[in-house]
TrEMBL record:
It comes from Steinernema carpocapsae (Entomopathogenic nematode). Signal peptide: none annotated. InterPro entries: ATP-NAD_kinase_N (IPR017438), Diacylglycerol_kinase_cat_dom (IPR001206), Lipid_Phosphate_FormReg (IPR050187), NAD/diacylglycerol_kinase_sf (IPR016064). This is DAGKc domain-containing protein. Pfam families: DAGK_cat. PANTHER family: LD11247P-RELATED, SPHINGOSINE KINASE. Residues 129-242 form the DAGKc domain. GO terms for cellular component: cytoplasm; membrane.
Length: 242
């Protein structure tokens, strides 16, 4: 096991009893043992930067890519960080297991990491409120019935690891998505997921436009999980966003 690198004299380990200011550029954690997916263990220094967590020479996770931070039940000093990072144009699951020196340091590190990687409040929700629940609309016949396979085999495992709560509704006919969006309880859900081609996305937007509170409804995030045949909408968005 490699010895931990010496921190720069300007980098001081945080006071475990103090709150770290949100504007702080970095939080230093020393004597950290990291275990990767490949079971590689290494002792080094870990930094919480403004936009990412840096695992010394072993890489980094952007906070926006982290889906879960959990304590390891068998070791109160250990944390598991789960993320889906962008590699070669695709999202790939990556996990890091961190073992800190003591429970107090581990608790502080987890709280700070959770704060920095916390999900943003949905824009249609009032301030000082938060939630973690999605309504998922699935066209079971979309993409020659591949949409349902996509949901079961790929999306559900990610949602479960991210601890996202969700309700699922299977659309039954053309226009069903519009009816659902028109009657959607905005207080119950933080967003609408659409597993289909482009048509169901259009139906949801049409339903929001029919509402008396359309201005608020149009702020509801729409998660399009492309399960159609051509998926022109998703392709166009990805091209525009590079």
């Amino acid at each position: 096991m490699d010895a931990a690198a010496k921190p720069d004299a300007r980098e001081v380990a945080p006071d475990m009893n103090a709150n770290v200011d949100s504007s702080a550029k970095r939080v230093l954690v020393e004597s950290l043992v990291i275990e990767t997916d490949e079971k590689i263990r290494q002792k080094l220094i870990c930094n919480l930067h403004v936009n990412e967590i840096q695992f010394g020479s072993m890489g980094q996770f952007a906070y926006k890519d982290i889906v879960n931070v959990a304590t390891v039940y068998t070791n109160p000093n250990a944390l598991t960080i789960r993320a889906y990072v962008l590699e070669g144009g695709k999202r790939v699951e990556r996990n890091m297991k961190l073992e800190l020196e003591d429970p107090e340091r581990s608790r502080f590190f987890r709280q700070e990491l959770e704060r920095r990687s916390a999900r943003k409040r949905s824009p249609h929700r009032p301030k000082n409120t938060s939630g973690n629940k999605l309504l998922i609309l699935i066209n079971p016949y979309s993409g020659q019935k591949r949409a349902l396979q996509l949901w079961n085999n790929h999306v559900i495992p990610i949602f479960e690891k991210a601890e996202i709560d969700f309700d699922v509704v299977f659309t039954e006919s053309v226009g069903h998505g519009t009816q659902i969006a028109e009657q959607l309880d905005l207080e119950e859900y933080d967003g609408v997921g659409v597993v289909s081609g482009d048509g169901l996305v259009s139906e949801v937007i049409a339903g929001f436009l029919r509402r008396n509170d359309r201005e608020r409804a149009l702020k509801v995030p729409i998660l399009h999980i492309p399960g159609g045949t051509g998926n022109a909408l998703a392709a166009s968005i990805c091209y525009h966003c590079k």
